[in-house]
Amino acid sequence: xNFNLTEEQLAVQQAARDFAQNELLPGVIERDNKQQFPTDQxxxxxxxxFLGMMIDPKYGGAGLDTISYILAMxxxxxxxxxxxxxxxxxxxxxxxxxxxxxxxxxxxxxxxPLASGKKIGAFCLSEPEAGSDATSLHTSAIDKGDHYLLxxxxxxxxxxxxxxxxxxxxxxxxxxxxKGINALIVxxxxxxxxxxxxxxxxxxxxxxxxSLMFSDVKVPKENRVGEDGFGFTLAMxxxxxxxxxxxxxxxxxxxxxxxxxxxxxKERKAxxxxxxxxxGIHFKLAEMATEIEAARYLVFKAAWLKDQKQDYGQASAMxxxxxxxxxxxxxxxxxxxxxxxxxxxxxxxxxxxxxxxITQIYEGTSEIQKIVIARGxxx
Length: 379
Ligand code: CAA
Fold this sequence. Notes:
By secondary structure, the protein is α+β, with helices and mostly antiparallel strands. It has helices at residues 7-24, 28-34, 39-47, 66-79, 81-101, 104-115, 231-267, 279-307, 313-337, 339-342, 349-358, 366-378; strands at 121-124, 140-143, 147-158, 165-171, 181-187, 193-198, 209-220, 224-225, 269-270, 273-274. The longest helix has 37 residues, at 231-267. The chain binds acetoacetyl-coenzyme A.
């Protein structure tokens, strides 16, 4: 067992930390207030290689391992979880799926601009009446010979408006249930595609979350990813890796809250001494750091398994389940440590608390992670 990071991993971590502190931190409160997409910062993330981190350089990626990816996700999430979800969806759900299952033509046409950050992508599974129960999706893709005719609605889509490339899961043969689902690449601007309203969210307010409506959208057959009926399996495989990214996001949010709490408790005085010297704060910080470290090992284990090409579905579910719980629990306590100031936007921890909640919901709720873990145990 080796807990040491390589020189390359340390360099990625440092680059992500510098980027987060220098480029994301200055405007993060304003973007959260205004629900403003971090356009310039996303462009910079592309230039730094953060949008296609694990993709082969021949397809525009940075060619790094999953450990490097989670190190970068953690550093960016400490400061701006809106930026990190944009990054996570592009890396894990869109680029990874295209590189792993796409044709050479799809990789050249769609993956290269996505992995190099010239464009960003969105992964479209959820529907108004199909969230956790993903096999029940209603969006239809009727086979018309050389193309599919796409009709339906997707909702709560991260990067819904900012994306140029959408991976849409749609049902071609309802009798086959999940085995009738296809994954189709749809380009922004396609006739019949309408981007719906932007959701006004509790957290990750800098990211754009939209519904998408499809009305007789023609999708060429060559835009199907994988074999006929492979769409649901593709979605599940993408989500298994995606959950490592979201677990790293939760880890980053929790670590950010810890760093801010340590700093504040050394500065803030009460009853004649810094609050850091009161045992009540000692105990909170100690438990917070311990649980964050435990979450870190689960996240690293899942990433390591993926890098070793071993099965990581259950490990990623465990990492997401636990890291998101830790993030929620300890961001609430970070607000408590900050007292009244914790309730004020300027001190950042209230935003971390709001951002933490979504990590227990998207890419599979905590309850879905428990189903995945239990099924793995009982198999
Ligand atoms: N990898 C590969 N295949 C998988 C899989 C995995 N991780 N998990 C399930 N499958 C396969 C199963 O083997 C099965 O295939 P076969 O019939 O060929 O054996 C098929 O998928 C259906 O699986 P189940 O029978 O287990 O189906 P189910 O309906 O009982 O449960 C579920 C499926 C695990 C609950 C699944 O629906 C699920 O994960 N739901 C959550 C969906 C989700 O995470 N949504 C997130 C939205 S995307 C998002 O949030 C992105 C964003 O914007 C940030």
